[in-house]
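Hello,

Following up on my earlier ticket. Below are the two sequence lines again, exactly as submitted.
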Amino acid sequence: MKEVVIKTDKLTKRFGDFIAANEISFEVYAGEIFGFLGANGAGKTTAMKMLCGLSAPSSGAATIAGFDIYKQTEQIKKRIGYMSQKFSLYEDLTVLENINFFGGIYGLSNRQLRLKREELIETLGMQQEAKQLVGSLPLGWKQKLAFSVAVVHEPKIVFLDEPTGGVDPVTRRQFWDLIYDTSDKGITIFVTTHYMDEAEYCNRISMMVDGVIKALDTPARLKEQFSAASMDEVFFELARGAKRKAD
Amino acid sequence: MDDVVLHNLTKTYRKGAAAAVKDVSFSVRKGELFGLIGPDGAGKTSIFRMLTTLLLPDGGSATVNGFDVVSDYKRIRKEVGYMPGKFSLYQDLTVEENLRFFATVFGTTVEANYDLIRDIYVQIEPFKTRRAGKLSGGMKQKLALCCALIHRPTVLFLDEPTTGVDTVSRKEFWDMLKRLKAQGITILVSTPYMDEASLCERIALIQDGRILSIDTPDAIINEYPKPLYAIKASLMSRLLKDLKAMPETESCYSFGEYHHLTFHREEEDSITGLKKHLEEKNYEDIAIKPITPGIEDCFIRLMHAKT
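Thanks for your patience. The regenerated structure is below:
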């Protein structure tokens, strides 16, 4: 029996008359790489905010790492990591200071912090850069560091919002190597992306269109279902009919 | 005739400590749709800002429509349209007010050039009384393009117009560009998405402030020096490690559903040998096929050739 780490049941978010997320129901399993795809304005960000405990749903139910999305948001926040292309690290702190800061916020002890710091610098090969300001690092390094910091407290789930946007093709692949290693440790990856080749790297994918989950399956089965040669075609087939065009 | 010419253009920041653009030379022909393709931090925006006279070069020179970007900056500003990567219209003016404002600044009217923007503007016209700051991402993008076009520029600079935009909207945007090109406007567009390269007539691949290659997308692909294979089997993540570990492997990268591989030396039995090797390692559903490289394959190869 697979351990369920995210479970939503008819989760809905309304803003006035507008239904940003409309009765979405799905499950994500422990250690899975789950791709959360959709067109701009489909409701991905709204859904993610609810799952992270940052936005209260209008109706429906959900548990994250076993905790209730309405009542136990603080427990949820302790057991998840989050990283986006836009916000990740403090540019005017050094690499080490960022690790200390985020590790501290997630409640790691000094001893744990010291171990994590060493392990992280070692795996990323950033011995030379440890005392440099994050702002001076190339984007690819920043993104890899940001990801490692987002899982520094060994969360159950890490949410990645377009983590590889604008990153060069080699670094983008190194980033996915990090994702694979992390999922091997049993941490669940919940990721959004606009790169359709990355959709192929996910165990399962959901496609959101106009606030609803239109499709959910493995990349291979989705391609079969839509008689498509690539995920790009699947996406196109599903998103083409979208009414909403927003961010 | 060339509309945009760069000659050893160079830009450094932090008093020369950080070189953003290093000796970049290329030219864009009249009426061409030219793509500048590279990741964040490659120097694309610095190049655009120098060509639109918003930033002074530290070395080299550049001309737009025959005018020098430093000494003739006033002429250039009248003749080019620029859509920055970051939304830069007035958020507290309405759609219509923004458009009128930009037309007026350039000494023209919306009516005089309406034919040029009609196809795009009709899509946002239902919202013409809405403030620009309240528009959705896709609509902001369309309004910005209209404002960049309203003075009928001869050269249009578009800095990452499709970044963060989904596949469907990206396709729509490129269709709009094709229609603008048909009107004779020279277009210089930048993008971090390698798959958009094939939509340009010619492209420059750029990384770390240096041009890796300039040509038509087909010519760049034809220059790929080795046979390339796509490989798929059960357990893709283990397969990647195993393929990389083989002594015969020159390069191997994941590419969506497949891994792409080149050999150091191509032998007659390379493929049968590889298949046998993978079977011995108990892989199932093994598929190996020769493929034509894409621009991303070329980019990765050129990135490594440089270092």
